[in-house]
Automatic annotation (TrEMBL):
Coiled-coil parts of chain: none
Protein name per UniProt: Thymidylate kinase
Gene field: tmk
Residues given in the record as ATP binding sites: 10-17
GO BP annotations, alphabetical order: dTDP biosynthetic process; dTTP biosynthetic process; dUDP biosynthetic process
Keywords: ATP-binding, Kinase, Nucleotide biosynthesis, Nucleotide-binding, Transferase
Length: 220
């Protein structure tokens, strides 16, 4: 038995967490067993590394060292949660995965692609997404949303970067979606959360055959 692996990617505040939750609710309403998870994190070991990375403690070590930490967290997450869930026939919905490393550490951080290839092979092996939803909004909208949600909390290691950085992140995600159209679906995430959820459910139905969409009224 083999499940399906769906990842959500995009810049800060594009609505990945909101839509991961909405998609999981939608698939459960269709009678599917769903595991909702996120990166960095998802297992106790990976959540501990999340704290180290997002606090900025590893930033002075440089993007390559941060890539090593993301890969270590991912290896634990894949082995401890994702691979067993897929083997049990479940649908895994994951907020960020390998494309985030390729964008933040690779395209923007300029970490060597061959190092990232090696780390990806070590951390995920053959566990690859069946479908990647790339959520796209202009960075100023995404950052404003993230700031509203954080309501006064300090920006994390990546949120505090400047406008050029977030524009480069957006461009790199668009390039990844264009380079792998069979795996990736580009979603205009500037609409309201209900409309984005409906667009995602349509894509999941057409690409993976996982049910037709009915408005659940779940709210953002
Ligand atoms: N990272 C991660 C790397 O550098 N390399 C890696 O390999 C990995 C895995 C993770 C950081 O780590 C970096 C990338 C990131 O910078 P995080 O805390 O997980 O940090 O941050 P993000 O993934 O960026 O999550 P955010 O919480 O910032 O954004 P989301 O999940 O995209 O947005 P969400 O759903 O939380 O929504 C934000 C706010 O907007 C509202 C929501 O209600 C919420 O208040 N909202 C909408 N408002 C209007 N219209 C809509 N359609 C809306 N959808 C959501």
């Amino acid at each position: 038995m083999s499940g399906r692996f769906i990842t959500l990617e995009g810049g800060e505040g594009t609505g990945k967490s909101t839509q991961a939750r909405r998609l999981a609710q939608h698939l459960r309403a269709l009678g599917r067993e769903v595991v909702e998870t996120r990166e960095p994190g998802g297992t106790p070991g990976a959540e501990a590394l999340r704290h180290v990375i997002l606090s900025g403690a590893a930033e002075p070590l440089g993007p390559a060292a941060e890539a090593l930490l993301f890969a270590a967290a991912r290896a634990d997450h894949v082995a401890g949660l994702i691979a067993p869930a897929l083997a049990a026939g479940k649908i895994v919905v994951c907020d960020r995965f390998i494309d985030s490393t390729r964008v933040y550490q690779g395209a923007v951080g300029a970490v060597d692609a061959s190092l990232l290839d090696s780390l990806e092979g070590l951390s995920v092996g053959t566990v690859r997404p069946d479908l990647t939803l790339v959520l796209d909004v202009p960075p100023e909208i995404g950052l404003a949303r993230a700031a509203r949600r954080a309501a006064g909390a300090a920006a994390d290691r990546f949120e505090k970067e400047g406008g050029d950085y977030h524009a480069a992140v957006r461009a790199a995600f668009l390039a990844r979606a264009a380079a792998e159209p069979e795996r990736c679906a580009l979603i205009d995430a500037s609409a309201d959360a209900d409309a984005v959820a409906a667009a995602i459910a349509d894509v999941v139905a057409s690409r993976l055959g996982l049910g037709a969409y009915e408005i659940s009224g779940a709210g953002a």
